[in-house]
Every structure is written in C-alpha cells, then in structure tokens.
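Supplementary Data S3. Sequence and structure tokens for construct A.
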Amino acid sequence: MKLVMLFFLLPIVLFGQESKKDSWEFSVKGKSGFLAAHRGTMGHLAKDRLLAGEFSFYKRVRSKSWSSDYRNPYVGITLYGSNLGNRDILGYGFGGYGFVEFPWTRSEKFVLTSKVGAGLGIITKVYNKDSNPKNVPMSSYVNALICLGVQGKWYVKPNHGLMLSLDMTHFSNGASKVPNLGVNMMFVGLGYSYTVANKEPKVVDARTFQHVPFFKSWNVSLVGILSEKQIFPTGGKRYPVFALSGMLYKQFKPKVGMEIALDVISKQSIFNYREYIPKTQGSIIQVGAYLGYNVPLDRFRFVLGMGAYLRDRYDQDGRFYHRVGMRYQCENGLLFNLVLKSNWAKADYVEYGVGYTFNYKARYHAK
C-alpha cells in the first residue's frame, strides 16, 4: 500500500514522547461531498451524495526543537468511514490514517492548517467481471487511504473548538492490481474538538543550523527496493520489481532538503510488453537519474521529485517518472523508504525499500 505503514510511524513515535508542553485533543467531524469522476470511464458512478464521519485523536507538538519551524504542527490518528458515491457498485469505505497538520498562522485562537494523511482502508465492493463489471476504480478490498486538505479551527473556549474543512479523500491500491483508477472524494466538513490537556504555550529553544558549502556534508545512502506490478488484462499475472537507488541527500534549511539519485530498475512486466520483441534480463534494465525536493520533519521526511530514464530500451511508459512519498532515517543509519513511483498521473508501482546511510549525521545541534 502506498504511503501507509511509515506514515503511521510518525504519530506513534511522537505520542510515545510525552511532554508537558504538548496539548492533547480529540475531535469528531461529519463530512458531505461528491465523487469526482477523474476519468471518462467513471462517469456512470457518481450517483449518491457522499456522507462521511471521522474521529481523530492528536496532539499539538510544541516540545520538539524542530516544532517551531512548522508553527507547532498537529500530529495524530483518524478513524474514517463513508459511502463511496455509489452504494450498489462501490459500496462503503472504512479505515484509519496517521496525519500531520501544518498551521499557517501563529494565532492560538484561530488556527488555519493544511493537512496530509495516509493509512489503510477497506472497501466493501470490488471489481468482478461477472457480478460487478462496472466497478472500474477498485479491484482490491484493502487499499491505501489518503487525505489532503485544509482546515480552520476556532477555539471558542480554551478547551472547545469548532472546525470547518475542505479535503480530498482517496482510496487506491497503488497499481498492485488492476483495474485501479481509484476514487477521489471531495468533502466539506464540520466538526467539534475538545482539548483534554490544554497546556500553556511555552517557548522551546530553536535549532541552530550549520550552513556549509553546497558540495559538502551530503549524506550518502544505498536503498534496495522490492515491489510488484499487475498489468492488463484484468486478472493477469503479477510481476516482481527489483531496484537499487544510490542517493545523495542534504538539508539546506529548516524546511528544505534535496536528494539526487541514480536508479537501476528491473521491472519484470516489461517481458510482457510487445512480446514479439526478444528480451533478456539485461535488456530490460532501466537506469534513471532523479532529483527530489524533501520536507524534513526531524528524521522523517516527505519526498516529491522527478526523474528521467538514461537507459530504457523499450520506452514503455515515456522518458520521465515521478515520486511522492516518505522516508525515515534511523540514528543507526538504517533508512526506510515508502514511495509511489508514477509516470505523470499514472501509478507505476509502490517502492518498498530498506537502505543504509553510510555517513548519517544530524545537521541540527542544540544551543
């Protein structure tokens, strides 16, 4: 599942590090919206008004040296349930996801945030060529659950808040099985929050950043990647994907990092592409150069980038590829990778990876 288990790690890690400076809250929210038919083949699906409910438990992080860089973000877990816009064909979706909300303002009375969340979801109806052939978006009962949105929260009293939100919620299996157009649901939400332990805001010493020349202090990593990919026709064979990425990473500012990678990819599904062309294990190897932007959150970082194939003999998906996901850097050098690789808006496969950073060192030091 794309962007799932590693994202759950973030709230778990932070929840385990209790501090008297952090405020715990829970909220309930009702949402209403519509199913966005992002492909012409989905035009027949949007029939029912979307109705959803959410229960969230989270805290506002004030106690970390990095939290002030992000105006003290909210980190937590949400339980989710809704119909999917067509009860007869798509059924219902349920799940849970970890999330981070980044405040845009420093006000303690009214807080406007942007939200990103990822987790696991279960749907009740999937594609079946005999009993449910019109369900072209979903072929797996278990899917990734993604939420992106903005939210305003008004604390009418120190412990009581009202919420208004706009978001997109997405179910998809990351192209591990076809068909997989996924569902995109657009919501407006109203909710209530209660602060269980409202702590007085305190100033935490900010991190100091060591500026060094561009060509110095890059972290060097090697990441092994394993995945699988199913191709059309529906119900076809699943093919393994093997890859190795040599990566350079550097953090330039508190919220800005960059990575450069050389990717070597063996995608076994290429053997099924134009089968009349003879192929070997050596000939299907793809080599790509990649550049990515990172948003660091302590040792956890979000990844967004684009690459180009330097070697791709069969040019199955075009010359460019893209990545969106996350990485987690352990203090002992281990690096965990969970990234969706795509060709523009078309999902290719999910990169499940484990690697090692040979010269890992934190760029921040306490005053």
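Construct B, processed identically:
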Amino acid sequence: MKKMSDLEKKYINALHSSSKAVVYHNHKIKDKFKKLSKSKNDNYLLGVKNTSQISKELVDKLTEDQTFLLHTIDKMARGGRAVDPELINPLTMRIMTGSSSGGCLNILEGINDLALGTDGGGSVLAPAAATSLYSLMAKGMGIQGNCSRISTDNLEFRPGIGFISHDFKICTLALKKLLSEKELALAEKSNLDELTVALPETETVILPHGEDMAALTAEIEVELSDYQVNRIKLAGSEKRKKAIEIIKKTFNEGNEIIITAEGPIDYYGYGDSVAGSFKIADFSQKKSGKYLMRAANLVNATAISIPTDRLGVALILLARPGIKSGFKVIKLAEKLAKNYKRPELFTRYFLENYRKSENNFLGADNFDQYFK
C-alpha cells in the first residue's frame, strides 16, 4: 500500500466529510501534492471563512509561496452570529460557537492546519477557546476586514482578521506572511523589558464553573515576575460595553497587556446577542464564559487565546494597538503557552486521528482508481 502524506490524508478527510463546516472543497489542490512531497519545506492546508470581509488579495498574499495552500471555504455562522445552531462542537457537545465556526471544526476533523477568520466581537477568539485551539486576532497590527458593519448589539466596527490553529507557531507564521518587511523588522525591537501587565483582581469575576478568574491567572504569575503587574476589577465585563470601558481605562493607565482567563465558552450558557435580547435569555448569556474577548476587536487590540487544561477555558491576552505591542503580546503568549498541555486524549483523538485515513477505503490510491 502506498503511504499517504499528511496533505493527502487531510484532503481525503475533506473529501468524505459530510459536515456543513465545509462550504467548498478545492479539489484542484491534489495536483500539487506530488510536487510538494519532494520539497523540504513545510506545507499547511488553509481554510478561509466564507465572508466577503476577507479579500482575495489577502488570501493570495498568504498563499503566494505555497507554505499555505487554500483547501476549503469554511462555514460562517449565519449573519455573523456568536453561536452557530447548525454545527455541533465535537469537544463539548454543545452548539458551536461562532461566527468563525466552520474553520475550527475543520481543524479538529483533520481537514486543515489553519483557519482564516474574522472577529467583530469575539468571533475568532471565542470559537478557538471553545475548541481548545490557539488563535491570534491581528486587528491591532492592521490586519482587518474590507469594510465597517453593525454588530448584533448595534455597535459599528470593522472586523479584525485572525488565525486559528492547533499550533500557535502556525498562527504567527501566517501573520508574518501578511506584514511588510518594515513591520517585520519591528519584531526584533519588541522585547519584553519594562512590560506592564494587568491581571484580574480576586473575586471580581467568578467563572461559570465556579472558579475565580484570578485564581486561574495566578497559575502563570511566576512567568510574569520580571514585569510590573497591576490588578484590575472586571466586574460586569460580561457586558460588551462595560468590557470596552474596562479595556480602554486599563490601557490609558499605562498597561500594555491585559491577561484574563475566560470560559468555559458556551458550555453552561450561550453568549449570543440575538437570544440575549430577550429578557429570559440574559441569565444564560451571563454563563457563556465570555468577557473581554467580546470587546478586543472593538478597541483595536491584538488579541490571543491560549487553550488551558480546562475544557473550553483559555487565557486571553490583549495588547494595545500597534505593531510593536502586537509582537510583544505574541512573545509573551509563546512563553505562557508552555505552562499548559491539553489532555493527551484530546491530542490523540482530534489532532492525530486524521492519520487513520489510510485505513479507509478512500485511503491509499482508491480515490484515484475509482472516482477521479
């Protein structure tokens, strides 16, 4: 039996997927695999959110050197909604978090390595956190959508563009493909000396599963010992307008990065402005586990989610707008991510399960022989 490459296995996974998460599968990509197999360079399969906010020029730039290959168009929650009732989160068995919903599922199903999404009020950070994936929303570094729009709770904004992956290094690699040489040069100048970080004050936010947010962020405080750490009150931050107010105040006070712990995302209740507009649903909205992540794009921050060892719970890092601050939060995230390891069963079931494709009938050369 011919041994399949990882690219071929992911292609086969998309081919026989019955999930609505795949809007379109690029069959032509298979013709490139043979040539790429002779290259020593790494290649990654890319899914792009089905939205006009992501320009063709941006995708062309990202895929120009074939490090990233456009593989699928991924489902977006209808109307950019914060939940997607048409998809199920295979990790939590709840309705999938939106609106970059399809991209996350296509990573968990072994179809893609990277999802390109848009974030208006948490639509990259939240679904990534809900599925224990990494994300990098780069609005603060100038990576944004084509035009302004109105959010589900009547706030005008331009969406940020973000990256979701099973590996944070893939997110940063994709970002660097979109930045200019001048912007990339600032990475070397963006050290973490004299960094000021804001953490949640104790007992101002109790997460839906009963844990104090401050107790969770305390687990990474040893990694922050070289920096100035300030405490901020986050009471009421489940409300988007209050979250915006808190972030702006914290940045204005001289803090460059804010770190929270948020979740379990959409596990005990759904954070959805549409349903939340009804009085009885407000209680459920408060249990969604979403706090500052819902406001990161609206303050033009660069924001990152790092999965933890708790189901649907992530560290959320927000940096002030600007390229240098963006690179600083990336460097800090790389440092903090080493503190958390997702359960081995999660890795084996979701991130490695696609390798079993060669045991399926469509594996090996059967597709070429019978269905090409």
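The two ends are 19 Å apart (CA to CA). The mean pLDDT is 93.
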